[in-house]
Write a structure and sequence with these properties.
The protein is mainly alpha-helical. Helices cover 83% and strands 0% of the residues. The chain has seven helices and no strands. The protein has helices spanning 7-13, 16-57, 63-71, 80-97, 102-125, 128-155, 165-222. Helix 6 (128-155) packs antiparallel against helix 7.
Length: 225
């Protein structure tokens, strides 16, 4: 009897269903790590842009000058920059018409910023649901593979008069690997999802606070003829 209990050998000797479960979990883990690294970079970039923009915005620079500076950038504005550009562009367009009430000018700019805010949050929220799914389902998928493997292991002993630990151990060991892989896929996904969700909530708060503060400035400017 082959008593090789190395992980590689156990995986090779596992049933097709258990091997399929393992392969599925490994693919899910690789995909989640890919999304983790990309999302981390994306959120870091969004926070960096927000810090730089707020520093310029509250430096006393004229809104028109800031708008022209951002609009003339060599690369497309991102995050809070797009929110500002959408709001100020709409405000300027409404004000130049000369027939729109100041309150309407501000409300129109606020709607434009809210729309752009929603788009940015949707972009930043992308793939977070995948991490949540991997984190919540991987342990159960791994457990299914374990149950299936143990069931097959005991069924194979049905015609054996006397079962020994050496006969049962390999089947149970290969089945438990599925649970281990499930946890390996789930734990990083859960940690990353919670971390990214917290950072995204904070960034959302900064975006919404900026919109409210910018609306106040636009109200003052709208009533200054």
């Amino acid at each position: 009897m082959n008593t090789d209990l190395s992980i590689l050998h156990l995986v090779q000797e596992a049933s097709f269903v258990v091997q399929f479960v393992m392969a599925l979990l490994i693919i899910a883990s690789l995909a989640s790590w890919t999304f983790i690294f990309s999302k981390r970079k994306e959120l870091n970039r969004a926070i960096e842009i927000t810090d730089e923009f707020e520093e310029q915005f509250w430096s006393g620079m004229a809104l028109t000058e800031l708008y022209r500076k951002l609009a003339a950038k060599d690369f497309e504005p991102e995050g809070i920059e797009k929110i500002f550009l959408a709001g100020y562009k709409e405000f300027s367009r409404m004000r130049q018409s000369g027939t729109v009430e100041p309150s309407v000018q501000v409300e129109s700019a606020q709607r434009a910023m809210r729309i752009e805010l929603s788009r940015e949050l949707d972009r930043l929220d992308e793939h977070l649901s995948f991490l949540a799914t991997v984190g919540s389902t991987s342990p159960y998928v791994g457990l299914f593979g374990t149950v299936w493997g143990i069931m097959n292991s005991f069924m194979s002993l049905g015609n054996t008069k006397q079962a020994t630990l050496a006969q049962v151990a390999p089947g149970i060991a290969e089945a438990l690997i599925a649970t281990a892989i499930g946890l390996f896929a789930a734990i990083p996904a859960v940690v990353a999802y919670n971390r990214f969700s917290t950072r995204l909530d904070r960034l959302t708060g900064r975006y919404e606070l900026f919109v409210e503060e910018f609306v106040v400035l636009l109200q003052r400017q709208a009533h200054n003829k």
